[in-house]
Amino acid sequence: MLDSCFLSKNKMLEIEKGANDFNIPIIRSNRKLVATTDGGLQNPSCLVFNSAWKVQQLENEPNNNLNYPSPAGVQRPKSDEDITFMSILELGQLLKANLVTSVELTGIFLKRYGPILESVVTITEELAYEQAKEADQLLAEGKYLSPLHGIPYGLKDIIAVPNHKTTWGSTSFKDQVLDIEAWVYTRLKSAGAVLVAKLVTGSLAYDDVWFGGRTRNPWNIEEYSTGSSAGPASCTSAGLVPFAIGSETTGSITIPVSRCGVTALRPTFGAVGRTGVMSLVESLKFRGLCDCSDDIRGKDPDDVSSRDIPFGDPLSVDITKLTVGYLEDAEMEVVHVLQSKGVNMVPFNLSYTVDSVQGILNFTMDVEILAHFDKWQRSNLDDEYEAQDQWPIELRRARAISAVDYVQSQRARGKLIQQVRESFKVDAFIGNTTDWEKVCVGNLMGIPVVVVPTGFKKISDAPSNDTRRRTTITTGIYAPPDRDHVALALAMAYQSVTNHHKQRPPIDALGPNDAIPDTPKSL
Fold first, then answer.
1. Catalytic (active site) residue 229
2. Cα–Cα distance, 147 to 91 (Å, whole number)
3. Which Gene Ontology molecular function entries are recorded, alphabetically (predicted)?
4. Which of 252, 258, 306, 356 is catalytic?
5. For 309-334, how does the pLDDT look when each residue is reduced to its tens digit (9 = 90+)?
6. Fewer Cβ within 10 Å of end Cβ, the chain: N or C?
7. Which of these is catalytic: 11, 146, 156, 279?
């Protein structure tokens, strides 16, 4: 039935156990939820066929409709270290004032790379200097493309760049070079940004383990960064890049940026095109920025799920007219700051009766991933996967999920979306971004969230009271689909009177009487 002669007896027994322990309870829950009556008149699947053919190729010009603020009185710091922790807009002011060139800036960031964080796969030095020289030439001609003009950045290494390796973090694909230019990379080139590195993704976009090691958290290098956007989160936190592009299927942006203390946007699903990016799940994959920008939005003609979503200006939002909810696990400092800014803050709960949210997410993710990596599994390449308790087990179990039960899970997903939409009576809400139930709900619904750092606490079992290592505290500002600018407006209001997001991690400068064994000794 499964055409699975390639599976060993032990693997078949593993699938049988997984189906009994995991698949069947989810199947029964979904049937009870949406399949108790026949005829399909209720609870339609949320996967809808789009009969339109490819739209005409759009111009890959950056969106310049936003009113970006211009920081006043920006001067070039004496220290290169200080430059690497300046904001994108501050760096842009230095470039426009000819206080630094893009070539200089690129060199400053390239010099920062080293082994300690295990967060970089490929340094694109030759390409970076080529793009930086072009950015400087355009500036000399009086042409300024966008706020990203001349700014170095990194891409998660599931995003294809021609003539450079795109390894997907996997031993099976570590020498892969794709003759494809990802949509998001094309957009960033059009905005004048400078690619300096391909950053770590967990192997096949699962967690932080990749063929070269395991990515560390700059705030506590004894910890790992978690999440498959491990490289973008770790590098942005450590000042190795001013901003980076990650991706998310289930928490792959929100979880590592929360651990690494980075401001990040997971945008509305469909806001950023996915062409040229390793595909895991057609109906879940997000693109997002660590340290946020608008220049990658727009309709991707080769991605049928992408949309040309109008992006409102966060600076034009009157937050005093907003009603914002807060969950029980919200960081109350954010609530109090926004309240002091005139926002109407009210207690809030996400209301839904679907009890198989995490199971729906797993069915959706595992079945669709296996469809994209069927040959990989059939060739037994999963035997060389870096962490055998991750994709190999999940995707073998996914082969035992029937088409009927997959569709039922999508009907249950549709019911979840309907119920949450009906209960979403606020303009936005504040809540935890690492709670697994919220991660699953947010990804199944495709809603945007901005992660903001809100403080720090002591690490557990600290070897010294003088250690500089910290545990970061963050929270999320969630908004309805297509209302990313509302979440961003609230995040900007909070960060305008706090400085948690400006703090610098110790990386390997741990402080007196503190040392982490078995780690490289230089950044």
1. no
2. 9
3. glutaminyl-tRNA synthase (glutamine-hydrolyzing) activity
4. 252
5. 878 889 999 999 999 999 999 999 99
6. N
7. 156
Cα 148 to Cα 244: distance, rounded to the nearest angstrom? 12
Q: Which residue among 203, 228, 234, 409 is the active-site one?
A: 228
Q: Based on the residue annotation, tell me whether 252 is a catalytic residue of this protein.
A: yes
**DSSP, residue by residue, 42-53:** SS--S-------
Confidence of residue 128 (pLDDT cuts 50, 70, 90): very high
Q: Any residues with CB less than 8 A from the CB of 123 and at least 6 apart, and which?
A: 110, 113, 196, 197
- pLDDT for 59: 41
CA dist 403 and 424 (Å) reads 32
Q: Is 228 a catalytic residue?
A: yes
Beta strands in 232-371 (DSSP E): 244-248, 264-266, 286-290, 323-326, 344-347
CA distances (Å), origin 423, targets 113, 228, 428, 479? 47, 31, 12, 13
Phi, psi of 362 (to 5 degrees): -65, -45
**Predicted local confidence at residue 113, as pLDDT:** 87
45 pLDDT above the threshold of 60: yes
Backbone angles phi, psi at 461, to 5 degrees: 55, 45
How far apart (Å, rounded) are the C-alpha atoms in residues 261 and 471?
9
- Residues 116 and 208: beta-carbon distance below 8 Å: no
At residue 484, the 3 state secondary structure works out as: helix
